[in-house]
Amino acid sequence: MVKMIIVLKSGASDEKVAYFSEQLRKKYDVQVNAWHGTQSTVLGLLGDTHKVDVESVSAYDIVESVKRVQEPYKKANRKFHPDNTVIEVCGRKIGGGELQLIAGPCSVESKEQICGIAKRVEAAGASFLRGGAFKPRTSPYAFQGLRAEGLELLLEAKKETGMPIVTEIMSADHIHLFEEVDVIQVGARNMQNFELLKELGRLDKPILLKRGLANTIEETLMSAEYIMSGGNEKVILCERGVRTFETYTRNTLDISAVPIFKKLSHLPVVVDPSHAAGIPWLIEPLALASIAAGADGLIIEVHNDPPHALSDGAQSLTPDQFDRIAARIQAADKALKGLSASAS
Question: For 236, left (φ over 0), alpha (ψ -120 to 50), or beta?
Answer without folding.
Answer: beta
